[in-house]
Amino acid sequence: MKTLGPEGVSEVLHTVGKPMRRPDAPEKVQGRAVYVDDVHPAGMLYASVVRSPHAHARIKAIRTDRARALEGVWTVMTHQDVPGKNIIPMIKDDWICLASEETHHVGEAIALIAAETREAAQKAMELVEVDYEVLPAVLTIEEGFEREDFLAQWKILKGDADSAFSDPDNVVLEEYYRTPYQEHAYLETNGVIAQPDGMGGILIQGSLQCPHYVQKAVATVLDIEMARVRIVQLTTGGGFGGKEDAPSVPGSHCALLAWKTKRPVKLVYTREEDMICMSKRHPGKVRYRMACNREGIIQAVDVDYWLNGGAYVTLSPVVLWRGLVHAAGPYRVQNVRVHAYAVRTDTVPCGAFRGFGEPQIVFAIEAHMDAMARLLGLDPVEFRLKNVLDYGDETITGHKLESSCGMKEVIEKVLEKAEWKERYPRYGRDTGRLRKGLGLALSYYGVGLGALGKHLNPAAANVVVSADGSITIAVGTTELGQGMFTVLTQICAEELGCDPRVIRLVEPDTSRVPDSGPTVASRTTLMSGNAVRNACQQIKERMEPHLQDQVIPWTSPSYRPETWPQAVSSCLQKSVQMSAQGWSVPPKTSFDVDTGQGDPYVTYTWSANTVEVTVDTETGEVVVDRLVSGHDVGKIINPQTGEGQIQGGAMQGLGYALVEEHILKDGRILNNQFSNYIIPTPMDTPELIPVIVEHRYPWGPYGAKGLGETPMIAVAPAVVNAIAHAVGKHLKEIPATPERVWEALNA
Ligand code: MOS
Questions:
Q1: Is 395 helix (H, G, I), strand (E, B) or coil?
Q2: Is residue 348 helix, strand or coil?
């Protein structure tokens, strides 16, 4: 096994660390990639879903006769027609597959229809009659909190926060912060096709992030063994967390219809439907109280963190937990009290979204850091540097940072690219209509599922070498556009010393690979990367003894892709097994639920963002001119896709900061289309400068950690800090729409 170079010392790498074109790019840009709506099995029916118009209501009767009688309608199903359990299994078994006695959010599924045409399926929806008794609905964090109706609750208790707050020598600041719903806005809506496989099982293909979740859900509602449920991911047009748990709903619904009709059935959501009933980023509220001594050293934090979880538990406990663990930001704090609550309301269940519970609380932490710095009369950079975590320090959960902690280098490089020293003193002094400001925000991100997701941690890779030396790789994690195919190709080519062009990644299929946990938590490069490496090493070890007496200069350190096919053929002639299953199990993690102490994640990615804004004081409009986004990723496998992650994450962060929010009335989302749910476009893109720092993580493939989510997390606070620098008004709620900024300016 190749040993890793120590930090800062480079080893000779041929493919890893170099830009490489995405292997899936030509198919996608030339329109040949097959998405779910491109698939039309013979005899296929179209599905539609009857949904609740009420946030909370008792269902007194459901009449389906008229819908059934419509020409072209094959079946109408309600909760009574579910052969297995009427639940979507996730963390708790409370998520209802088809509402029976009550409905708990607008858009909740009540009945399913399969018909010969889309038109008939749509028409039949209107013919299903449901009698409701509308009940009072709980819609806000405040109402849910008052009722003590919690989907999850966590805490961290460390040291003696009370003494720090009562010490008259300390400066204390308390504020409330709020963050909105955010829509994933993937280009492709949720969609699946289900069909009986003719052998007593069922095949589901779809736009999915986590095929193994859907497998479990379908087996549960149909009451059949998981081995009879085969899930294949088709080319997926974006997920961002929105296709983690959510596709289990259309997956189960479509499976029920196909099982009943014995026909292929397609269910592809309209955009409006997708926005109304699919998961979103949880709205958040944070009470942040901090005590500092006069030198600007943080003495204590006392935090309440609330998320609006919606009607069912889904993923809220883990989303909330990630926020909890990172609740003091990348800073040393000895005395800590954090209480975190996911509140149940009669609204759409919220779920995974890039950052997973961190963006909400990081907005509060980093806005608060600037507010505290002002109160102390300290420069925001100086204040952060006095407190920032470094090698040998402990996080608020008592995790000692022994390796791969590049926070300081990230800050240094980002500030340099931002020309902070020159620009910061120049800005924040304008008196005219247009005023410039510069803001900084830091974050850190525990890579992978961590202590709460232990049972889903391992990942597998099947690597098969063909007679001509070409290679097929199947992994249990998925390509969503983030670049998994690219980095795993590079890792395999590096390990085997072959040309990356001979490697082919195939679409994830639950019948082909063991459950490898979800494609989330920025864990794919780390977990599947190590699994691929492990499989390649097994193959290499089998090959080496057979090549020793031959003049085939193939193995490392001599990288000779031109001799790879010859080496393969020579091994095959000697009956060497040229395939292997790689398996990767991460190092131990821990978390004590009573104290919130432990090593919750295997390692952390360290990030800093600076944002430069121009504020129009007459209109309240904020234009972002420049954004520098830096990350210690351990080791970058592909600088090109890495920069792509940074650009995409930064833009999602700017949307969150400036424009994106859902407006609800009586629990109904009013803006459910892209004409009224606004996201940034290329026209809104600032000068965007990515910065990569590499403090290698010894267990990661070539030292890599994770990068998928981190570029999104600390953008919004950098924006409000820049606005405060420009105009002296510190927003405590996002998005910083022109209306909100104008109101702050004219308050
Ligand atoms: Mo990701 S938000 O952990 O699906």
A1: coil
A2: coil
- Give residue 537's pLDDT band: very low, low, confident or very high (50, 70, 90): very high
C-beta of residue 58 within 8 angstroms of C-beta of residue 133: yes
Q: Atom 4 in ligand 1: which residue has the minimum CA distance?
A: 241
Whether the predicted pLDDT of 361 surpasses 70: yes
Sheet holding 298-310, edge to edge: 150-158, 335-344, 298-310, 284-292, 171-179
Cα–Cα distance, 506 to 199 (Å, whole number): 23
d(CA 380, CA 675): 38
3-state SS assignment for residue 474: strand
- Interval between CA 319 and ligand 1 midpoint (Å): 9
Distance 249 CA to ligand 1 centre (A): 17
- Residue 697: per-residue pLDDT: 97
CA–CA separation, 732 and 690 (whole Å): 27
- Give the Å distances, CA to CA, from 11 to 17, 24, 540, 554: 11, 29, 19, 18
- The C-alpha atoms of residue 325 and residue 369 are separated, in whole angstroms, by 18
- Packing angle between helix 407-417 and helix 380-387, nearest 10 degrees? 160
Nearest CA among 25, 264, 313, 277 for reference residue 153: 313
Nearest to 499 by CA among 533, 529, 470: 470
Residue 443: pLDDT over 80? yes
Paired tokens of 674: 């892209």
List, in sequence order, every residue forming a beta bridge with 665; answer none if it has no partner: 668
Q: Strand, helix or coil at 300?
A: strand
The alpha carbon of 89 and the centre of ligand 1 are apart by a number of angstroms equal to 18
pLDDT tens readout for residues 732-743: 999 999 999 999
Element (H, E) at 306: strand 298-310
Q: Which atom of ligand 1 is nearest to the CA of 521?
A: 3
For residue 448 and ligand 1, the question of a CB distance below 6 A is answered with: no
In sequence order, what DSSP letters do the residues of 715-739 get, joined into one string? HHHHHHHHHHHHHS---SBS---HH
Average pLDDT over residues 699-713: 97
Q: For residue 634, what are the CA distances in angstroms to 587, 695, 701, 707?
A: 16, 5, 9, 9
**How far from chain centre, in Å, is Cα 16?**
24
434 membership: H or E segment, kind and range = strand 434-446
pLDDT tens readout for residues 476-492: 999 999 999 999 999 99
Q: Which residue blocks in 234-389 are alpha helix, DSSP H?
A: 248-261, 271-277, 316-325, 358-376, 380-387
Q: Distance between CA atoms of 304 and 286, rounded to whole angstroms?
A: 6
Asked if residue 319 has its Cβ within 6 Å of ligand 1, the reply is no
**Contact call for residues 325 and 600 (beta carbons, < 8 A):** yes
